[in-house]
Amino acid sequence: MVPSNYYLALGAILFTIGLFGVVTKRNILIVFMCIELMLNAANLTFLTFARQGGNMAGHAIAFFVIAVAAAEAAVGLAIVIAIYRTRGTLHMDEVKVLRD
Amino acid sequence: MAVFWIFTVPLIASSLGVVVAKNPITAAMSLVGAFFCLAGIYVLLTAHLVAFLQILVYAGAIMVLFLFVIMLLSLQDEVLGVSRLKVMQGVGAVGCIGVFAVVYRAILASGGRYMPQVDEGYGTVKAVGRLLFTQYLLPFEATSLLLLVAIVGAVVVAKQRI
């Protein structure tokens, strides 16, 4: 048997890798993938606590997180296509109409 | 314990592959590998339904969507964009390590406990489905509305002219 803090530490490592990607990468697609990685780290933590507590509420939450991630990916990739069509770039620093 | 490491080491390696990859297709394929390893970890946590959903929805549907978009855009090298300056990457790495240190301290303070025994039907489709259709019925139905809104939104945003 593996103690619960191994799973929690694994979730923290995955979240940190995803956060590093979101902070440093400038390609919109890779930033999206890193967000998916962070959502998965949250899912892993939910499932660990569900297993430790012995109830299945965390499984229901993980199900909802997967559904939200699917919706986010659909809308986000549509936005990526729209940005690429109007600006011809996927570089995040060049998409700054609202910032200027 | 051995099975845990069999899934964990490739999981961390492939999720690092997402971050270091230059090409989005390489990143997407290593993310698929990470999702498969994570499904194995979920099975270790006796979350069988979520493990199958992970493979079906994440590694199947969402990553196929990503790959379709990457293929559709036919990216040249200058479009992919150069990374940020090395200095910014270093600052980002230091900040991420700080976040990790805070979380890791909390995990250490909570102390590692061994998982209790669970009964036979824990985490199966039947048990989780019963929970979804009784206690979480309203969020479950709201999820269907969310997916509908996402479909309509994706069509509206990506369509050339409406």
In summary, what is this structure?
Chain A: NDH-1 is composed of 14 different subunits. Subunits NuoA, H, J, K, L, M, N constitute the membrane sector of the complex. The complex is a heterodimer of chains A (100) and B (162). By secondary structure, chain A is mainly α.
Plain-language structure description:
The complex is a heterodimer of chains A (100) and B (162). With 100 residues, chain A is mostly helical. Chain A is built from three helices and no strands. The longest helix of chain A is centred in the C-terminal third of the chain and has 31 residues. Chain B starts with a helix and ends with a helix. Classes of the chains: A mainly alpha (100), B mainly alpha (162). Chain A: It is found in: Cell membrane; Membrane. Chain A: It is an enzyme of class 7 (translocase).
Succession of helices and strands of chain B: HHHHHHH
Order of helices and strands of chain A: HHH
Mean pLDDT of chain B: 89
- What value does the Rg of chain A take, in angstroms? 17 Å
Largest sheet of chain B: none
Through-space gap between termini of chain A: 55 Å
Shape of chain B: globular
Biggest interface pair, residues each? Answer: A-B, 72 and 86 residues
Helix content of chain B: over 70%
* Total beta strand runs of chain A: 0
Number of helices of chain A: 3
List the quaternary state of the chains.
heterodimer
**Structural class by secondary-structure content of chain B:** mainly alpha
N/C terminus separation of chain B? 55 Å
Strand fraction of chain A equals under 5%
Percentage of residues in strands of chain B:
under 5%
Structural class of chain A: mainly alpha
Helix tally of chain B equals 7
Give the averaged pLDDT of chain A, no decimals. Answer: 91
Helix content of chain A: over 70%
* Regions with little confidence, pLDDT below 50 for 5+ residues of chain A: none
